Amino acid sequence: MKSHRHVLLIGLAGCLAFGCDESSHPSLAQYALNANGTQDINNNNNNNNNNNNNNNNNNNNNNNNNNNNNNNNNNNNNNNNNNSSIASCRVKYAVPNVTTGGYFETYSLVSASGITGTEGTHQGLKGQFGYIDANPEYASSDMATMLAKVHWSDAQYNPGYNNEEAGTDEYMSTNVQINEPGMYVVYYRYSLDDGANWTYCDKDGIATKFELSKITLVTVANANNAKIEWCQLTWPDTHFGVTPYAFKSGESLGVYAQVNAPGITGDNGTHQGITAQFGYLDTVNSGKTYADLKWIDAKYNPDFSGSAKDVNDEYMIAVEEKPAVGHYVGVYRFSTDNGATWTVCDGAGIIESAENFAYDNLLFFDVTE
Questions:
Q1: Are strands 151-154 and 253-260 parallel, antiparallel or unpaired?
Q2: 0.70 exceeded by the pTM?
Q3: How far is Cα 207 from Cα 90, in angstroms, rounded to an integer?
């Protein structure tokens, strides 16, 4: 076995004879510290391991850089959201009269840079409709106390809005049912962070305090207390107790009537809570009475444009399947309690005694081939 000294001398002699390449050989100091070949190999392995560790560290640093870049991107996205704010909002309109069992119908406008308007994304904005009964005690309450009592529900973005106010979107609520009569204050609110923070709106704009002059009120009437004040079968209008109106084959059976019920009918009415039907019977047996009438459901006519539309509603039937060929008389009836009680009317108005209606005021009509 060679001594350490012999190894050192052999190595030194080789360098003197052939020259040493410092870039590819260990230095003399390394040979002096590493007395045998085994140790040298271990050191070389350690160096390789260190290089691998350095590479791993570099990879980790790269991964960290990638993570930092991702975080920066996320921060940029968050900053973009945070850069937007609710610039304005207000309650645009609410149908002022509703009957119990009906639905609030309300609309609101909101402006938020980059989100609303024709150039906006229409995303990232949450709107809600809220209502609270108009209890006098709330008039003296602070905003926070009052808003804590509001019933909130999600409003819907209205894609059919025609941008009547530049830079705004319209939100609406038409599916919140109300079953208790009374007077209600309605509000809207909006959030850009999924409800963590809210901006509140009244009819004048962003609301920071409760002001009676800026609230929107909706009156809810008890549908069961609504009364039919008047009704009349109005068309065909020249065939009451005289020459029958002829509905020919292929022509629908169209008959119209008007009704007045305060709080429900007319321009300011809810158009809700009324049940309407047209009844008819054949005249072969003149002894037939009200109990013999056959009834067809009528529907509200949204296109009614008569002179009395400010106080009345119009109902109609347009039935393709007419009665069998024959001679008939007909009347209308209306109810505000889902058919528990009825008000019957003919061509002259309300029939005070339905069991003894006068044929002279009934609609006469024929169904022909």
A1: unpaired
A2: no
A3: 9
What letters, b where the CB count within 10 A reaches 16 and e where it falls short, cover 94-116?
bbebbbbbbebbbbbbbbbeebb
351 token code pair = 């029939």
How far is it, in rounded angstroms, from Cα 124 to Cα 116?
Answer: 10
Is residue 314 within 8 A of residue 269, CB to CB? The reply is no
Residue 265 has a CB neighbour count (10 Å cut-off) of 29
- Report the alpha-carbon distance of residue 314 to residue 3 in Å, rounded: 122
CA–CA distance, 199 with 210 (Å, rounded to integer): 14
Any bridge partners for residue 227, and if so which?
Answer: none
Express each pLDDT in 168-213 by its tens digit.
999 999 999 988 888 899 999 999 999 999 999 999 999 988 787 8
Our measurement of the distance from residue 313's CA atom to the centroid of its chain's CA atoms, rounded to an integer in Å, reads 28
Query: Distance (Å, rounded) from C-alpha 164 to C-alpha 158?
Result: 13
8 Å CB contact between 169 and 117: yes
Q: N- to C-terminal Cα distance for the chain? A: 132
CA gap 265, 271 in Å, rounded: 6
What's the rounded Cα separation, in Å, for the pair 73 and 66? Answer: 10
